[in-house]
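step=encode ok
step=design start
structure_in=
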């Protein structure tokens, strides 16, 4: 099991990646270059709306549009990457998959060993190995997003000794058949074996955590997903992840959380357009911040002259 530890700083050599964002309404892709010590550079961006033919299942329409997107990226994006990096070929592909084909769940594990233990990736992987899955699901990815060792929040748990600990992780579940079809489509297009999948909800919540890491008590509302979700951060650690579909449910969730935790001062809202679908309930949140591409300017460089795609910018940050 692979852990992409978003709470840990990462270093990497030069690397070219294809990033693919898959949703029920559109698919998008980008070529991104990673150089050690520099911000990731988004070199080309394309998004194509999914148009279903009569009686065509949405999965088939998505795969057909995904193939068209891949051809467009190779034809129009690869030359930009070749000019910028000296190579028009990518080293790896990351695809984020949204509902209805993927979901994200938060899980936590407590450790109370008889003797102090040293945390390692193997220890954490074994602890989360019993993740429940439906027969048609596969665990595409699992990421640690919070750790408390001996009562203290830490951003670097590996290699440290603890007598008691709590670890929080996000699990990405994807429908197995859809995941396999996506991998086959991308492999045939780009001739790359290194393909990883993650649920869009998991990716976006992790990226927001990295952008607003200084916020110790906050709420993150993802409205970009077909299934919106709310994450609460308390004392620097994620404590809940819940589905929200309208403002009444949002207000109910915040009021419920208030019984156990101090309410967050800021609600960060992630949306595709400029209008909030779920405004923050008055009196429950001090302020609402709508996340914009400008919030990522310090983390990701957008090179094309076309407007930046927020989903792909978040992907570029997450993949760094």
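sequence_out=
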């Amino acid at each position: 099991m692979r852990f992409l530890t978003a709470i840990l700083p990462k270093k990497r050599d030069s690397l070219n990646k294809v990033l693919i964002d898959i949703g029920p309404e559109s698919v998008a892709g980008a070529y991104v270059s990673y150089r050690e010590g520099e911000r990731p550079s988004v070199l080309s961006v394309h998004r194509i709306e999914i148009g279903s033919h009569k009686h065509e299942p949405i999965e088939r329409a998505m795969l057909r549009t995904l193939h068209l997107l891949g051809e467009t990226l190779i034809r129009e994006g690869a030359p930009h990457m070749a000019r910028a990096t000296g190579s028009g070929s990518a080293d790896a592909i990351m695809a984020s998959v949204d509902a209805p084909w993927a979901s994200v769940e938060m899980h936590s594990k407590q450790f109370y060993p008889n003797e102090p233990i040293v945390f390692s990736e193997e220890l954490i992987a074994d602890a989360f190995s019993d993740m429940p899955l439906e027969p048609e699901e596969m665990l595409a990815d699992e990421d640690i997003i919070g750790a408390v060792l001996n009562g203290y929040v830490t951003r670097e748990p590996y290699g440290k000794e603890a007598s008691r600990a709590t670890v929080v992780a996000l699990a990405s579940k994807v429908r197995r058949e859809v995941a396999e079809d996506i991998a086959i489509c991308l492999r045939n297009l780009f001739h790359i074996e290194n393909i990883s999948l993650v649920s869009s909800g998991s990716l976006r919540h992790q990226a927001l955590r990295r952008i607003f890491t200084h916020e110790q008590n906050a709420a993150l509302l993802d409205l970009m997903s077909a299934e919106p979700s709310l994450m609460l951060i308390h004392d620097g650690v994620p404590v809940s992840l819940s589905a929200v579909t309208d403002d009444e449910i949002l207000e109910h969730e915040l009021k419920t959380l208030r019984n156990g935790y101090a309410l967050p001062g800021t609600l960060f809202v992630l949306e595709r357009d400029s209008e909030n679908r779920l405004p923050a309930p008055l009196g429950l949140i001090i302020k609402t911040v709508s996340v914009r591409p400008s919030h990522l300017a310090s983390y990701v460089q957008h090179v094309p002259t076309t407007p930046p795609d927020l989903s792909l910018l978040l992907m570029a940050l997450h993949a760094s």
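step=design ok
step=annotate ok -> The first strand starts at residue 15 and ends at 22.
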